[in-house]
Amino acid sequence: MAEDSAVRRLARMGHGRMAGLVAPGAAPGDLELLACWGAFITLVDDGFDRPGGVSSAAEARAVLDPLVAVVTGEGTAVRTPAVVALRDLWQRTTVGTEPAWCERFATAYASFAEATCQELRWREEGYTPSVEEYVRLRRLTITVTPLLLVALRPLWTPSATEELYGVCADVVAWTNDLFDAGSERPGQVGLVDVLARERSIGRGEAAAVARAMLEESLDGFDTATGPVRDDGSRRWAELIRTFLGGAVAWQYETRRYRVTLPSQRGTAGPQTDPLEAATGALERRLALAVAPGGALPDRCVSRVLETALLLALLRTRGSHEHEQRQLTRYLDERRPAADPLDALLIDACLRPHTLPADAADATRPLTGGLSRATGSRGRFKRSVLHAVLHVLGGLRLDAADAPTPAATPALSTFTLVNQLAVQAVYAQATGHPYALSTRERFQFSDLLADAGGRLLWEASASTHLLGLNALQSFRPGHRLIDDAVTGLLLTCDVEGGVPFLDSQDVWLSAVGGLAFLDRPALRPYTARMGAFVASHQAHDGGWPFASGVRQTDVDSTCRAMEFLQTLDPHRYRHHLRRGAAYLAAIAGSDGGFPTWLESDHPDLDMTAGAVLALAPFGQDHHRLVTAAIRFVLDAQLPDGSFTPSWTLSESSVILRAVDALDAARTLPAADLARIDGAIARAAARLIVTQQPDGGWGHTPDSHSDPLSTAQALTVVSRYGPPHVTAAAGAHLLSRQSEDGCFPSPPDQVGPRPLPFDYPVVADIHALTALDRISGAPLET
């Protein structure tokens, strides 16, 4: 059992994935060697941290001295498994390698060994080092330099840029310490601990200091590499920069960072203004959430749908029994509080014998609102749900309900894979296996094989898992399934659940960066956030919602353009022009903008976003913006609201529409009377639907939640009476948690209309709302 646990833990580390992230241009053999070194270094290093492992400096010396002797060439008679493994690894590494590299690596590994023993001596003695002592030692114990040297080995020469190794090690180590700061463990001392002790401040404030140190170190890296003119040195610096970004991404992706941030509320005094204190606490929390590379990489909360689909896949394959038990436990624990749809999915997966014969009919009340959210695709969405119930619990499918071919040959990657997957499930389940042609089967497997560098296909677990279950139905044991399962298991959270997405970093960074620009304490982070967003513009001029995703979309493109335009329109002028051309090419003849492709159904929130992105271009896109504004105006319902599409929240879509209408005021020949009337009706809708507690929910019939309230507050603070703003502001402050965040039910949906949760979204909107009402009196 212990060996099984070690194997599972090693698999979850994803060292092959690490190698690809830190050295994306390396040859396959070099990537394999790098992955082996990563596994070896991590397993040795973790032996000093895990319960029951090495606990004293003397024990560490007995483990490490023979390993150091292997790489220094001194030789050792010890034949532990670690020594035997290292001998083989070292022999493979040194073939054709420069002697100078071998000496440099041996020095780095010996330094790691000595620093590890010193750290354990401090732990034995109960000694807490100074910040200076800790930083010096941590640079060595993180083992970044040995792994970096392996990554650089094929091109290595003694270089003047070697001082960057230390900066790289510092950034990885401090990021690790920062994201571990909320999980205090006996005997463990991190950067936040030593800062808190030396400066006599709280852990939350110490975490903020650590984040500032990270930013300063990154600035130092940029300064050191900026004036480099020699092509060889510049390439060397870029390789180290790539390694740094990849190392942080790998640590985050494989959940080695726990992301439990410490409380940030310790600085408010009795005379502190409540609004100022709340905003400050939120700012400090959001500053900690920005990754060193500029991304805002929040984690999507796990869901029932994806968890059940993974469990069904593992059961069909008869593999990963331990993980099956974790997934089953996750579903069981969520059954008592599940909504009707989740309850149906859980029961279909765990208790298929209870699935009624008329379960397809029973889903009608659950899918009645699909057409409202998805237009003409409502029927297809019902086919998807029935296919999922068949995969989970064997629901009998009727060939007459099989999805019909798409009306247009142009489909987004997500729609195409879902379409083929559902067709495959229906074909196999109804006894017509060749209803999915041979050409379509090859097309389907080719699509799934192209993962684009993410753990999940196009970052989406629901699409990936539906596709894999469909592939399993007609090609059981396909090698793609084995490869994909490893990545899927890496996305599972500690409770065993699977999220909808494994990333939304581009979209979140753009939305968060725009909110940060108005806050002096957060604005310094926006330059790096802007560079991150700009770097992920696709060849077609648009942006995807996450790094590594090929399918671009209108919403992510508009959010990226809004941010970059506000941040630095001159620096990003070429990105903005390409983005504008992308939007111009996708606009519909009715003025509306779809989410994915020109032929798709237009969405109100996409169209409003296009207005905000294109309005700064003046006459260049005047016709498009004018038509888009007319679409927004025509879409308003008599009660002042708008039909939601990618959100559950009425206030969310109102905010997007009002922002677009507000931006249109400055356009030549704008119909100001109609625009003002539409804004007034939208604000009036929010005013009359404000709950007695001062907040708003997803709909007027829903309980108030912080996210919906923040989005409504951003509108009524501009267009509503002071007493409405005051009551809303007071309610929002009352919903802030002790650690500074604003926990809230999610309002984003995908696949529509299923909600998914990135908790930082509520924090970003709360920050914008609090900034809007700064200085305004609140109700008490």
List the helices and strands and how they pair.
Blueprint (H helix, E strand, L loop, with lengths): L1 H12 L1 H8 L5 H19 L10 H16 L8 H14 L4 H27 L5 H11 L2 H9 L10 H17 L11 H9 L3 H23 L5 H23 L20 H16 L12 E2 H14 L3 H14 L5 H11 L8 H4 L1 H4 L2 H5 L3 H16 L19 H17 L8 H12 L11 H14 L4 H13 L6 E2 L5 H12 L9 H10 L18 H14 L5 H14 L17 H11 L7 H14 L14 H15 L7 H17 L17 H14 L2 H13 L25 H13 L8
Antiparallel strand pairs: 1-2
Helix pairs in contact: 2-3, 2-12, 3-5, 4-5, 4-6, 6-7, 6-8, 7-9, 9-11, 9-12, 10-11, 11-13, 13-35, 14-15, 14-16, 14-23, 16-20, 20-21, 21-22, 21-23, 23-24, 25-26, 25-27, 25-35, 26-27, 27-28, 27-29, 29-30, 29-31, 30-31, 31-32, 31-33, 32-33, 33-34, 33-35
In short:
The protein folds into 3 domains: 2-257, Farnesyl Diphosphate Synthase (Orthogonal Bundle); 302-499, no CATH class; 505-772, Alpha/alpha barrel (Glycosyltransferase), CATH 1.50.10.20.
